Each structure stands twice: as C-alpha cells, then as structure tokens.
Amino acid sequence: MSDPVEESEGTAERGERIAKWLARAGIASRRDAEKLIAEGAVALNGRVVETPATFVGPEDRVTVNKKPVGAPERTRLFRYHKPPGLVTTHKDPEQRRTVFDELPEGLPRLVSVGRLDLNSEGLLLLTNDGALSRKLELPDNEWVRRYRARVHGRVDERALAELARGVTVEGVAYGPIEAGLDSRQGTNAWLTVSLTEGKNREVRRVLQHLGLTVTRLIRVAYGPFTLGTLPRGAVEEVNAKFMREQLGLDAPPRILRGVERAAEAARVTAADEARAAAKPEAVQRSRPAKPPRARNATEKLRRPWGAVAQGPDADQPEGPSRDRGRRRGPRKPG
Questions:
Q1: 3-state secondary structure at position 64
Q2: Of 249 and 334, the one with more pLDDT
Q3: Where are the domains of the chain?
Q4: CA distance 131 to 302
Q5: Per DSSP, which regions of 46-195 are E strands?
Q6: Sequence-distant (≥ 6) Cβ neighbours of residue 323 within 8 angstroms
Q7: Looking at residue 137, what is its pLDDT?
Q8: Fold that domain 75-141+224-248 belongs to in CATH
Q9: With contact defined as beta carbons under 8 Å apart, do 154 and 226 qualify?
C-alpha cells in the first residue's frame, strides 16, 4: 500500500490535476471542467487535453476555447443579495437575466455556491474557486440553510413540527427540517425554515405538501455566513481571516480531524449532561465557591484589595473594607 505522504509529494512535483486547476481558476466546477476537457475545449501548451488526469505545472500555459487562462488567484468569497427575477447560471437558454449579468464590474470570474430559484431572493455565496464551491455545497458539511418564507394558506403548527422527522414528497425523501411560525395575519403568515440538504426547490415543495403556497422566499443564512443588512443587489467580499477560520483553510488535515473529534466529544458530553439534568436525583444544591486561602501572611499582604470580594458587595470600589476598625464585640477589660 502506498504512503499518502509520498503520493502527495509526487503530486506536488507533477503539478495539479487540470480539472482542479481550472476549478480554482474560476472557469467552472471540477465536474464542468471535466466536461470541457471531454469536449476538447481545453489545451495545455498548445495541445488538446484528452484526459482529466493531466497535470499542470507552474510554467504551463492553459487555454479554454483558445482563450488563455491565468493562474488561479487566492481564494476569495463574496456575499451577494440576490434579487428575485434573476437566474443563478452563467448562460440561460431562455436568454433571461442572470446573477452574473448584474454583478458590478471589477470582480474576478465567480461561480455560485449552490443556487437560488428564479423567484427566490437573499443570500447567495460567490467564489472564484470552483473547487471550494463544490466543497461548500456538499450535504456532509451539515451547514444550516435558513430561510424566511411568506406563505398563503392555513398553517398547522403541529404539521410544521413533524417536519423535524423528515418527509417524503412525490417519492423524494427530504431530511429533517426545522420550521416555525413567526407571525400570522389572516391567511398569510411568515415562517422560519432551516435545513441542511438544500435539494432543488426543497422549501417550496415541502410547504406545498402541507397545503401552503410560498409567495416570497428569502435565504438569510448559509452556514456561518449571514445576509445581515446587505442591501438588495449588493455584493460584499467576506473578510479573508473570517473565511479561513470558518472553512479551515489554514489548518492541516490532522488539525482539522482533531478539531472534529473535540467537537464530537463536546456534543457527547453535552448530551450526557442534559440527560443527567433531566433526572431528579441528579439535581444538587449549588454552593458558592469559596476563595482560596492564603498560604501565609506574606501572600495575604500581597493580595490586592477586593481580589476575593464576593456576594452583594462585590461591585464596590476596591480599597480598604468599610468595616475596618469597627468593633466586633465588647472590649475586654484591662
């Protein structure tokens, strides 16, 4: 069995697979890049690429449809407030306006992280790294997509709660969905809907299954990234440090695995504590923690005034006690 370290070193010497290289360059997702290769649209140093297993080195020249492709830039991520009426695609057969037609000038070539329907609006993530886009779309990330939905019809809150168990609509199985009623006025209502799968038109189809017609759908969050107060039609780059922290781009795989194990251990511990707290015999009377005793007179003198102040008077200004000099009992004769 080959050593993974040796394999990675060999890959580094040969370069990067061309489909991944094109994805990082923002040309297309890795899957679409493979389609371009199959169509004979990709050339390396003037020769048509015949297989996605071709490697690209630092000095190689790559063209797509005879147009040169620059080396991949640093990974960048953008938040975009998509208005309704735009298609999330680069080219639409029906010649409708697309998200990318409406972006301001000066941005690199971007691809979307997932899609929003024609009439849906709200947060859409855009990146110049096609490989990153594919990674963020994977259901295995279990990133919560949160929506606000305006619906028409009779809202059955019990039926909404049942969605947490998952539901099958017209032969399509959908995972757990958290849905709750925010407000209601007549036959119109606002719901908050959270899910992790994000299948095609999932929110609309599931709510239609409950007899509700979605009249407006706004995505307000995608994982740790939120719409916030971003104006409609505006685009804003995500802070590079925040992006790296959320996506783990700076951490080596072994560190990420350690973080995942720690997170899983924390979840297990939290679950155990919750079960213990639910048992009456596990309830214990809490006592205020006592300050540590000074080990000697010197340490007692070195303590700052108020360092061990507790109770109702703990917020008093630091300084000598107001009780200093107050008599604690009758003075002894003599």
A1: strand
A2: 249
A3: 4-69, 75-141+224-248, 144-222
A4: 59
A5: 47-48, 55-56, 62-64, 67-69, 77-82, 111-112, 121-127, 145-152, 167-169, 172-174, 178-185, 188-195
A6: none
A7: 87
A8: Alpha-Beta Plaits (3.30.70)
A9: no
d(CA 320, CA 301): 12
Give the residue numbers annotated as catalytic, written as ranges: 117
Whole-prediction pTM value? 0.64
**DSSP state letter for 98:** B
264 to each of 10, 177, 224, 261, how far by Cα in Å?
A: 34, 22, 19, 5
Residue 30: closest CA among 47, 53, 50: 53
Q: Tokens in use for 116? A: 């929003």
Give percent of the chain with pLDDT exceeding 90: 48
CA 91 to chain centre: 27
Query: In sequence order, what are the beta bridge partners of 180?
Result: 192
C-alpha distances in Å from residue 274, one per residue of 49, 155, 165, 267, 284: 57, 32, 21, 11, 14
What are the structure tokens assigned to 60, written together? 């190689």
CB-hemisphere CA count at 13 Å for 179?
A: 29
Distance CA 331, CA 333 (A): 6
Distance of CA 61 to the CA centre of its chain: 35
Give the class (CATH, top level) of 4-69: alpha beta
Helix (H, G, I), strand (E, B) or coil at 40: coil
Band of residue 277 on the pLDDT scale cut at 50, 70, 90: very low
Q: What is the residue whose two structure tokens read 């298609």?
A: 87
Are 113 and 223 in contact by the 8 Å Cβ rule? The answer is no
Q: Are 75-141+224-248 and 144-222 equal in CATH topology? A: yes
What CA–CA distance (Å, rounded) separates 183 from 186? 10
Residue 114: exposed, middle, or buried by beta-carbon count in 10 A (0-12, 13-18, 19+)?
middle
CATH class of 144-222: alpha beta
Give the pLDDT band (50/70/90) at residue 72.
confident
- What's the pLDDT at 296? 52
Average pLDDT over residues 186-191: 95
**Contact residues for 50 (Cβ-Cβ < 8 A; gap 6+):** 37
